[in-house]
Amino acid sequence: MDVLTPKRVRFRQATESAPPAPASGCGFGRWMTGLALGAGLALGLTRLMSTLLYGVSPTDPMTFAFVILGLGGVALLASYLPARTAARLDPVVALRIR
Predict the structure, then answer these.
(1) H or E stretch covering 23
(2) Do residues 71 and 20 lie in contact, with contact meaning Cβ atoms separated by under 8 Å?
(3) 3-31, pLDDT tens digit by residue?
(4) Rg of the chain on CA atoms, in Å
(5) Could you give the C-alpha distances from 41 to 20, 48, 49, 59, 60, in angstroms and in order?
(6) Alpha-carbon distance 90 to 65, whole Å?
(7) CB 27 within 8 A of CB 78
(8) What is the dihedral sign for C-alpha 67, 69, 74, 75?
(9) For 32-44, how does the pLDDT look when each residue is reduced to its tens digit (9 = 90+)?
């Protein structure tokens, strides 16, 4: 059971009335970091993956390129679509609704 003390009520009111944090704007940077870490780990774990792959070598450059481009497209959309929606909103209306 959650007991609300006066201190917790004040904290809850302060956090609920705070304006939303701005978008981080670094989706592409996070994608690049994830790409570097993921590609490094994938290349490092090729010996374990080789038993799961049929007809493709574990270090096939075309497969790596397609996966990187596919995930890059998804990351681009995941960064662009919310930013486009946020750019269409009037900030005064958005804060008033909150």
Answers:
(1) none
(2) no
(3) 556 656 555 555 555 455 554 556 667 77
(4) 22
(5) 35, 11, 11, 12, 15
(6) 40
(7) yes
(8) positive
(9) 788 889 888 888 8
The pTM assigned to this predicted structure is 0.55
Amino acid identity, position 32: M
Whole-angstrom Cα distance, residue 49 to residue 43?
10
Measuring CA to CA, which residue among 25, 24, 34 is closest to residue 71?
Answer: 34
Cα(77)–Cα(18) distance, rounded to whole angstroms? 28
Tokens found for residue 11: 């904290």
User: pLDDT at position 5, please?
Assistant: 63
Q: 3-state DSSP helix/strand/coil percent for the chain, to nearest 5?
A: 70, 0, 30
**3-class DSSP state of 45:** coil
d(CA 64, CA 70): 10
